Amino acid sequence: MAVTAMLTTLACGAQQANNSTTASDVGITKDTITIGATYPLSGTASAYASVAKGMNAYFQYINDKGGINGRKVTYIVVDDVYNAANTPAKARELVEQDKIFAAVGNLGTGPNLAVRQYYNDNSVPDLFVFTGSDHWGNDFGQYPWTLGWQPDYEAEGKIYAKDILANNPGAKVAILFQNDDYGKDYVNGITKGLGDKATS
């Protein structure tokens, strides 16, 4: 629902500027709104491809109900293999070849960090990035075209620590984490949440 509301608002704003109902902004025609995303459709993180399939199913549902203001949503998903080194080329493909209006639901902290400057430099809405890194909230002033949606990993880590302290105050806690921003945010949150009970 949030995605539909955001796309409707953006599409209406884009059309309102020239008071036309035909075509205006890149990715919006009188009949379609073209959006896209990068996902690991292959590789070790390909289980996340099901999220893109679910989003596409929702957009098909919206299309079956008449679309957004009569426009059908075209959702293009490209494979970045969950590798931030691949994501910039895939983002350029979406913007420069597929002519998307907005990126919606791009997956992963590293991949999103690799492309947010590109989307912002090109004024491409980068909506509902699928990552809980605190970058999306902390850096909003520098990247106004990028919008996160989920709780940040550090906040989640603090919640886990609070639960540990409440239910197992004498527990010894070891943390196995992914050695990147994603994992380090959890470690920071758990460590801060444990307070003086934390040791390294």
Give a short overview.
The protein is of the alpha/beta class. The protein is built from 7 helices and 5 strands; from the N terminus they run αβαβαβαβαβαα.
Describe the structure.
The protein is of the alpha/beta class. It has two domains: 2-148, Response regulator (Rossmann fold, 3-Layer(aba) Sandwich); 153-197, no CATH class. Helices cover 44% and strands 13% of the residues. The protein has helices spanning 2-16, 49-64, 87-97, 109-121, 135-138, 153-167, 181-194; strands at 32-39, 72-79, 102-104, 126-129, 146-148. A five-stranded parallel beta sheet has the order 2-1-3-4-5, with helices on both faces. α3 (87-97) runs parallel beside α4 and α6 runs parallel beside α7 (181-194). The longest helix has 16 residues, at 49-64. The protein starts with a helix and ends in a 6-residue tail after the last helix.
What's the topology here?
Layout: H1 2-16, E1 32-39, H2 49-64, E2 72-79, H3 87-97, E3 102-104, H4 109-121, E4 126-129, H5 135-138, E5 146-148, H6 153-167, H7 181-194
Parallel strand pairs: 1-2, 1-3, 3-4, 4-5
- Overall tally of domains: 2
Radius of gyration: 19 Å
CATH class category label of the largest domain: Alpha Beta
Fourth CATH level, the homologous superfamily of the largest domain: Response regulator
Query: Tell me about the biggest sheet?
Result: 5 strands, parallel
Q: Kindly report the CATH topology of the largest domain.
A: Rossmann fold
Residues in helices, as a percent range: 40-55%
Q: What keywords describe this structure?
A:
single chain, 200 residues, alpha/beta, 2 domains, 7 helices, 5 strands, elongated
